[in-house]
Amino acid sequence: RARPLIRISEAAVEFESVAGGADPAPVSLEVTNGGDLPLDGLTVSAVEYTGGGATGWLDAALASPSAPTQLQIAPSLAGLDPGTYLALITISDPDAVSPTEQVAVTLRVIRPATIELDRSSVELGTTPGQNSPTVVVNVSNGGDVPLTGLGFGTSHPAGQPSSWLDVDLSSGQAPATVSIRALGAGLAEGQYSATVTVNSGLSGVASRAVAVSLTVAADATITLSRTEVAITAIVGQGNPAPETVAITNGGGGALDQLSLDAVAYTSGPAGWLGAGLSGSAAPASLILTPDPVGSALGPGTYTATVTIRSPSATNSPRTVAVTLIVAEQPQIAINPTRGWTPFEAINGRGDPQPKPLQITNGGGGGDAALTGISVTVEYLSGDSDWLLVTPSGGTAPLTVQGNADASAVAPGEHVARVTVSSSVPGVDPVSFNVTFRLAWSFELDILQLFAADDCLNCHLSGGTFPDLQSAPTAYAHLLTATSPPLVTPGDPNTGDLVCKIVGSGPCVTATDMRIDDLSARNRIREWIAQGAKY
Prior knowledge:
This protein has helices at 442-446, 453-456, 471-480, 496-502, 518-529; strands spanning 6-8, 12-18, 27-33, 43-50, 58-62, 69-75, 83-92, 100-110, 115-117, 121-126, 135-141, 150-155, 165-169, 176-182, 190-200, 208-216, 222-224, 228-234, 243-249, 259-260, 264-267, 273-277, 284-290, 300-309, 318-327, 332-335, 343-346, 355-361, 373-381, 387-390, 393-394, 398-404, 412-421, 430-439. By secondary structure, it is mainly beta.
């Protein structure tokens, strides 16, 4: 009878839950036996966590060590930040055709809805009696659950006028915009302030505030669209695009003779930031050009300050703080780290269990920085077109599944090379070899080879040991005989069966099972070398 074969109903399982919420419901997978002999030594031999993140968040247990049984998989959100977590569960039985099989687990801990604003402060400027230009604040959802029920409120310091602030919200659902301007009618020269608070009717969503400052002046003032600029670069991917800051006149008269001081570097080496003006009079733009490549910056955080001046502005000078974050280059990481263990199957008994492969970013920039992933297959020896990888690409973190097609190959050993690559410049591909071993089946491929003249009258008639009349009996006799041993699984050069079919050697009555067909003899020896599978 056929050796046991581990069959699992799914090779990959996915969970999703909101951070801080309830744990996802456990999932049970069916574990069955694809062979004939008992599969009764099953264990969960390992739970391996992928990507260097949190561990211990997954519980995996078998209901019984004997198939059929269930594998229960239960993730826990305790202590987990939002993100994607990957693990591989290994199920083992040393007596199975393939002694280990794996299940890939993906846990997505999604973020609750949060209000995110692209700026926390707004500068407005105007002259007495005139409305200011409108400044737009972008509202986005910092979570994964839809952000709805948006609204806003305004507040003013005690003793200040409150009718000057004009606010409009474009939508009750993110993404949205908040348009803010000052109505200058009735305002004297001076400084005014207010707060715009963006809120949501969703439970647990915190409000976010925008500090609004207004300058009403007859003379020119420097107004900046933002006073803080954050730039991200990734090693090996070139320089980031330039950033701009709009410079306008928040008062009256002319804002001219604009100039810049030399860039002041407040941390790290100097020289990585270029700063220039699009013109010497407002409206103009401050153009910031980062050059981490030319400055050979390694991973880290670098800061600088740019100072803008004008002799005609009453609030000169103004500054812009610039932060540059240089992240390590993305790097492909796979689990299992050495790729797939061999696919193993017996001819005529179906395809082997699919195998999962988890792909993550083992470098910098987070998983989202590893994009354009593709998985390709090259056949090195044996037959081709037997390995299907799905999906064949995507963005990290990604779980792909390898499926070996037993109908596409002849019994024997077939080798392919799997390469995981990325379209991100400078990211090295990762490759591994995988083997598909399709064994001859005693029942389907070997037994009929004994129908030779020398075997016909004795062993095939049931009168002589081993009895070759039926596959179960013949297999049991060949594999259990000990005096002398007939078959030594894995060794095609010992055992009386090889001696007898070849017709030479130390065995007694060497010719009583002789097989003259060389290809038949070779197949029998290959079957033994492959482990003498049923």
